[in-house]
């Protein structure tokens, strides 16, 4: 398979991996010794610190139909959540706070559609739009462990940062614009790594 995304609990015992194209998405409860299929397919996956809450972001990226699923029992059962009934975003990436309450998701409205970013503070029950810009496609989000520091990146655009839980945002212009594809953030939010 072609592994698209992975997430791990803070102690490394719980791992979720996604293989969007072959459907071999799986979860391990023993640090990767054994695997159980049944994880929804998607483009991005996030997990809380104890491995109980797992979120999968995906959808059909050609016609722009988004699918967001979440498990609050370690991947035993899954529920589909509506991020925005009027959005046609294909969800590309998801980040989660250590307690599983705050979730940040980014997508694009179909092939080469505008970036859309949404934030939930209640495990995906309700969502607040953060940004809908003119940049083509959004691919990456990151979050500190407490959910107070957030980042998202758009293709052919900038990396945007928030230090107040998503209330205000500013473009990180020191790196310029690029085709950003991945972001990762340290637990305290002081360090961010971005990839193209």
N-to-C span: 22 Å
Q: Order of helices and strands, N to C?
A: EEEEEEEEEEEEEEEEEEE
Q: Main beta sheet: strand number and arrangement?
A: 5 strands, antiparallel
Q: Helicity level, as a percent range?
A: under 10%
Mean pLDDT: 86
Category by helix and strand content: mainly beta
Unreliable stretches, pLDDT < 50, 5 or more residues?
none
Radius of gyration: 15 Å
Number of helices: 0
Structure summary, number of beta strands: 19
Oligomer: single chain
User: What does the overall shape look like?
Assistant: globular
Strand content bin: over 45%
Descriptive account of the structure:
- The protein is 0% helix and 48% strand.
- The protein is mainly β and 196 residues long.
- The strands form five sheets. Strands 13, 14, 15, 16 and 17 form a five-stranded antiparallel β-sheet that branches. Strands 1-2-3-4 form a four-stranded antiparallel β-sheet, with no helix packed on it.
- The two termini are 22 Å apart.
- The mean pLDDT is 86.
Brief summary of the model shown:
By secondary structure, the protein is mainly beta.
How are the secondary structure elements laid out?
Layout: E1 5-8, E2 15-18, E3 26-28, E4 36-37, E5 44-47, E6 54-60, E7 65-71, E8 79-81, E9 90-96, E10 103-108, E11 114-120, E12 128-136, E13 138-143, E14 150-157, E15 159-162, E16 170-172, E17 178-179, E18 182-185, E19 192-195
